[in-house]
Design a protein that fits this description.
The chain is built from 26 helices and 2 strands. By secondary structure, the chain is an all-alpha fold. β1 and β2 form a beta hairpin. The longest helix has 24 residues.
């Protein structure tokens, strides 16, 4: 259809497509439903409104569950073909996929044709499944709601009722779909409507089942960024609620929390970061799951970078307080796991350029060098890897004082003659693994 154009599609291909949509084999009807948007893009507005729209309703009401599911998943893209591209900011790329253009580039003065506006009223088809659709179908509708909203500019009041009904549906799979896309709804509606209509729903999702909460958590920073600065603080104080889950073994919840906290630092002041986010970073850095700790170490690096930047412009000592907590909690920990964690945190700080070399040498390096003589080989190994790959780079050592440089070289010489062969291996400099302080590597903790 895309190759032959609208005239050939309307006069030749459409007849065959209509037959496929009514084929006796459900797999054929399912394939037709999946390609509905591409066919609709190649048809004239009259054909789209009078022939394809009624046919799509038949697919939504099909006897086969799989055909209905495919139709509901295509509902949003199909509705989008009725919209005026200059007002909806949507377009179909060369591969036939629905894409969104930057709203600033859309011509807001453009007036769509009568056919387009009339066609957009097919949007309320989605409301039919509110009362007749199964759980799976309602889930599909939740996934397509943002695309439908972009198209149906004149039916947003109707869609608001549908959205509210889906957000309070008894089936958690329906609410989960909306939780994963509520940030997209906010981007479309704008800050004022989001604050009135979406914030209450977002708050209810935050108190829902874990299967629903993970949806809002994965886009927590995106949604908070849509709110007015005066409304963001409430979501900073309640973010630690995500540490409590129905299943304590659900470590991916905590991993995602660490990732979102790093993104949230863009929306808050350094003092707020030090008071609310830094303690959570320390808590997550002691998690039982290694993958959670890796993300927590990166979060500590992000927080420390922000706090150090604040110290450079004021007399605040927020970064120093975090470093002191790291030393007390980990460097001086009686358990080897804590001391090992301190070495990994230092590696991340160097890897992410979170602290200037001179500041790192004064605050963290002395404790890291002291651990080079730890009685546990794993601790010495982590120290050897951090010092060799990062602290021993020429860019870093060139900014150290002579006493600090001598201490670093003495420590490295001792590690190269360590009794453990793995410690000796990681303390031996390899040109390909010696990382410049100004160019962090991709090595993982």
């Amino acid at each position: 259809c895309a190759i032959l154009g609208k005239d050939t599609t309307d006069n030749v291909l459409l007849h065959n497509f209509l037959q496929l949509c009514e084929d006796g084999v459900w797999g054929v009807r399912k394939a037709a439903a999946e390609s509905f948007m591409e066919v609709s893009c190649s048809c004239s507005p009259e054909v789209r409104r009078h022939k394809l729209a009624p046919l799509f309703v038949n697919l939504i009401c099909d006897d086969s569950r799989w055909v209905r599911m495919a139709a509901f998943q295509t509902l949003g893209p199909f509705i989008s073909t009725f919209a005026d591209p200059n007002k909806s900011c949507m377009y179909i790329n060369g591969e036939g996929s629905l894409c969104f253009r930057d709203s600033g580039r859309c011509d807001s003065e453009h007036t769509g044709s009568k056919e387009d506006h009339t066609g957009s009223r097919e949007g309320p088809i989605g409301s039919e499944e509110e009362t007749t659709g199964s759980g799976e179908e309602m889930t599909g509708s939740g996934e397509e709601t943002p695309g439908s909203l972009r198209s149906c500019e004149r039916t947003r009041d109707c869609l608001r009722d549908v959205y509210d009904a889906l957000a309070s549906d008894m089936q958690w799979k329906v609410r989960r779909s909306l939780a994963h896309s509520i940030h997209e709804m906010g981007r479309i509606l704008g800050a004022s409507i989001t604050a009135v209509d979406l914030v209450p729903i977002f708050n209810s999702f935050c108190r829902d089942l874990d299967e629903v909460r993970i949806g809002v958590l994965r886009h927590y920073a995106d949604f908070v960024g849509l709110l007015a600065p005066s409304a963001r603080f409430d979501y900073l104080t309640r973010v630690n609620d995500f540490l409590n889950t129905d299943n304590s073994r659900n470590w991916r919840f905590r991993q995602e929390l660490a990732r979102q906290l790093a993104l949230l630092t863009d929306f808050y002041t350094e003092r707020q970061i030090a008071e609310y986010i830094a303690p959570l970073a320390l808590t997550l850095s002691a998690d039982k799951v290694a993958e959670v700790r890796v993300h927590a170490f990166r979060l500590i690096g992000v927080v420390l970078r922000r706090l150090n930047a604040a110290e450079a412009n004021s007399s605040q000592s927020l970064g120093g307080a975090l470093v002191a907590s790291l030393v007390t909690r980990y460097a001086l920990c009686p358990k080897w796991f804590g001391r090992h964690t301190f070495a990994l945190v230092c590696q991340t700080v160097l890897e992410e350029n979170s602290s200037p070399p001179t500041q790192f040498a004064d605050s963290l390096l002395p404790n890291l060098v002291r651990l080079a003589t730890d009685r546990v080989a794993n601790v010495r190994l982590a120290v050897a890897r951090t010092l060799t790959r990062y602290a021993a780079s020429p860019v870093y050592t060139s900014q150290l004082r002579d006493s600090q440089l001598d201490g670093l070289h003495t420590t490295l010489d001792a590690l190269r003659s360590d009794s453990d062969k793995d410690v000796r291996y990681f303390s031996t400099p390899i040109p390909s693994e010696t990382v410049s302080f100004s160019e962090p590597s991709d090595c993982e903790c």
